[in-house]
Design brief:
Elements (H helix, E strand, L loop, with lengths): L4 H11 L3 H46 L3 H11 L8 E7 L6 E11 L6 H4 L2 E11 L4
Antiparallel strand pairs: 1-2, 2-3
Helix pairs in contact: 2-3
Amino acid sequence: MRRTPRQRTRARCRSEDGTAALEFALVLPLLLVMALALVQVGLLARDRLLVEAAARAGARTAAVDPSAANVTTAALAAGPGLDAAKTSVVIARSGARGDPVSVTVDEEDPILVPFVGWLVGSSVHLHAEATDRQEFG
């Protein structure tokens, strides 16, 4: 018995049932990882801005205050989301009044979003430096 064109079309449609669901199931994990990676990039960009703000605030304080403790406190206060245990503040002074003072802020920023750590590692090193002129000495 020969099939009519209509019967052949129905048989082909039945054989393709579920292909869209299968393709979606194969692509969905990749889309989710990409979305999570974008969230992590946003978090890293925020922390990069905090590190830069901390370096600028530390340089402003170092320009008017000779105390290293005050400079470190001001730098960490300017970056409220920074982890003080993973952040280092280094002050480099040279000379007297009018000479530059540099403040360097480094932080090891952990990867917080799940499934992204195996793509880029467990942490990212962030670094910022700011220089200002000393107003004392």
